[in-house]
Amino acid sequence: MNRPSSRDRRLEFFAATLRALLVMVAVWSLPACSKKTAGRESPPPRTVLVAKVTTQDVPLYLDEIGTTVAAETVQIQAQVTGQIISREFQDGADVKKGELLFKIDPRPYEAVLASARADLALAQANLKRQTELLAKNVTATQELDTTKANAMRSEAAVAAAQVNLDFCSIRSPIEGRAGLRNVDVGNVVSPSAPPLLTIQRLDPIYTDFTVAEPDLPLVRQYLTNPNLKVLTDAADDAVEPRLGELYFIDNAVQQGAGTVKVRGVTPNPDRALWPAQFVNVRLILDNLKDSMLVPASAVQIGQNGPYVFVVKPDSTLDLRRVKQGQNHGDLTVIREGVKPGETVVVSGQLQLAPGAKVNPQEVTPAGEGARLSQAAR
Question: What element of type H or E holds 375?
Answer without folding.
Answer: helix 368-376
